[in-house]
Amino acid sequence: MPIRQLSETMINQIAAGEVVERPASVVKELVENALDAGADRIEIVTAGGGLNLIRVCDDGAGIPQAELALAVARHCTSKLSHDIHDIRSLGFRGEALPSIGSVARLSIRSRTENADAAAEISVDGGRVSATRPAAANRGTMVEVRDLFFATPARLKFMKGTRAEASAITDVVKRIAVAFPAVHFSISGSDRNPLDLQPCGDGEEGRLARIADVMGAEFPQNALALDAEREGVRLTGHVSIPGYSRGNALQQYAYVNGRPVRDKLIASAIRGAYADVLARDRHAVAALFLSIDPADVDVNVHPAKADVRFRDPGLVRGLIVGAVRQALAGAGIRPASTGAAAMMGAFRAPERQAYASAGARSGFSGHRYAGPAGDYDLGRSPQRPLERGFAEDQAGFDAGPLDSADARAGIADAPARAERMALGAARAQVHGNYIVAQTTDSLVIVDQHAAHERLVYEALKQALESRDVPAQMLLLPEIVDLPEEDAERLALHAETFRRFGLGLERFGPGAVIVRETPAMLGETDVGQLVRDLADELADTDTAEALKARLDRVASTMACHGSVRSGRLMRPEEMNALLRQMEATPGSATCNHGRPTYVELKLADIERLFGRR
Fold first, then answer.
1. For the ranges 12-26, 153-167, 186-200, which has the lowest average pLDDT?
2. Number of helices (H) and strands (E), helices first, in the chain?
3. What integer pLDDT is reported at residue 17 of this predicted model?
């Protein structure tokens, strides 16, 4: 077939296939344009999940009438300097508007501050109209109707109206977190309205916007981050281990103000919480990376959601180190939502249901219908005393109660212990749970989970303070690999040696392994080396071996800790509480389960109707 030049319309539709995946992609591009124009207020209106209508209005700088035709032409932009590596705006390609116009009915109305009137231009399935006068205030209004009418095959891949509307909301929320001083509003016939008021540019403003987007409980359960390494700065907030989610949708990441979904950042968050969260739980986070634009490539994909770092190991190490330092510095801290869950567990729904049923039926005497039939207060053993307290008490003398579990008395712990985070041990129940009292709360500790964390942290500290002992293989093992994998492993050989793995190059496309970590015992050397090569190819870091050693340490800690059912003396219980307070991450065991729960005195009083 002969080579021929594609038509302008087909070129735009191909570009639209990369840039405009769904209505949310259109909203993202238009909102980013408004922010690049310096808007302080952005209003979004949608209908039909964005397929019928998307309208974005802003109060930004506007587009001069003479430049409107250029705005809908390909590769025309005001945001790109002469240096392609120095990108400081959200948009820069100049493809969004012409791509949208090639698959939808697009109209743009704009007015600059000094213009006498506004101007308008429209694009209908790739056909551009002439510029015409219009009436509008300063700023720009972009309206997109009948999305994908020019490419109906794309409509088959769209989800329902509600799903598309939800995706638009998510896109706007992610952008809004990075711009807390801007007022965002979303409305339309296909959604519940959302109005994000401006919060200011400072740290407090950002945290307030994060609370608006991620929930009011997040700031109460968040740790602040502020770290810098070799010119890369990380700020933001991450959740404490006790406050987590079942998926990673509540992890927001930004690079120079640009919202991104980067697998390296997601992997770093997962690695930082590996020891304190269960595998099916995910931290809540809002991370902001500031980096020299020359050290990050934002031109990886037309949708601009992916980035590539020049030094991925530096970025990953910064995130993991900063998060772990914040977790260590937070001490022992329960989630604010734990008390509510505990309150719910203490409630008796069936009893409440019968009580409310009695109230609805006009119950005011001594009888009501319950599970066991009619209830007569006069025959109840819980009836009010008919005689004085002294008379009833005279016949009651059970003497001291023998209990194998309740061994810690008020006199067994110093008074200052109640002022500590986990308080003073008062009892051990069911051979596994320590009940402690602070000045204003009740604490229940899982002794096995708590001691498991303490042993694990001690083992990890021993691993980090010195090289891991290695065991010499009787017969060195040669592992064949692709040349590039063998080269990567050789470059990290010194790091592996610290962890007890001795390997070196053995000709083209192979490495020879002479030592393995003693902690691993008998292991599949070939599979271990291939797993390490895969991780290096994916993240350019040698964390897999350390993670494997940590898992061995976790297993050792589990088997070497205080077992469930062991009876503990009062001084042992209090010593365990003090160690927990001094050990980072001790609010959860190394499997991610909580080691203790806390119920405030005020909550207990509410349970008994005192508040």
1. 12-26
2. 18, 27
3. 63
pLDDT band at 23 (very low <50, low <70, confident <90, very high): very high
pLDDT score recorded for residue 385: 44
- Alpha-carbon distance of 18 to 175, in angstroms, equals 20
Residue 475: count of CB within 10 angstroms of its CB: 6
Report CA dihedral (400, 402, 403, 404) to the nearest 10 degrees.
140
**What single-letter amino acid sits at 478?**
I
Element (H, E) at 55: strand 53-58
Both tokens of residue 438? 């602070």
Q: Which domains does the chain have, with CATH numbers?
A: 8-196 (3.30.565.10), 215-329 (3.30.230.10), 465-560 (3.30.1370.100)
Torsion, Cα 467 471 477 482, to 10 degrees, reads -20
Q: What is the Cα–Cα distance from 282 to 218, expressed in whole angstroms?
A: 14
What are the pLDDT digits (tens) for 61-92?
Answer: 999 999 999 999 887 877 666 666 667 778 67
What is the separation, in whole angstroms, between the first and last Cα of the chain?
84
Question: What is the amino acid identity at position 206?
Answer: R
Angle between helices 96-103 and 8-19 in degrees, nearest 10:
110
Q: Give the strand pairing for 433-437 and 441-446.
A: antiparallel
77 vs 577: which has the higher pLDDT: 577
Are 91 and 28 a contacting pair, CB within 8 Å? no
Cβ pair 175, 32 in contact under 8 A: yes
Place of tokens 């587009």: 63
pLDDT value of position 366:
43
DSSP H/E element including 195: strand 194-196
pLDDT attached to residue 517: 81
Residue 144 forms beta bridges with which residues?
Answer: 54, 106
- Token duo for residue 81: 């300097």
Parallel, antiparallel, or unpaired for β 441-446 and 596-600? antiparallel
Give Cβ neighbours of residue 385 (< 8 Å, ≥ 6 apart): 392
Shortest CA distance to 536 belongs to which of 313, 258, 310?
Answer: 313
Contacts of 416 (CB under 8 A, 6+ apart): none
Beta-bridged to residue 442, according to DSSP, are 437, 599
| CA angle (158 as vertex; 156, 160 as ends), nearest 5 | 115
In a 10 Å sphere around its CB, with 0-12 CB exposed, 13-18 middle and 19+ buried, how is residue 298 labelled? Answer: buried
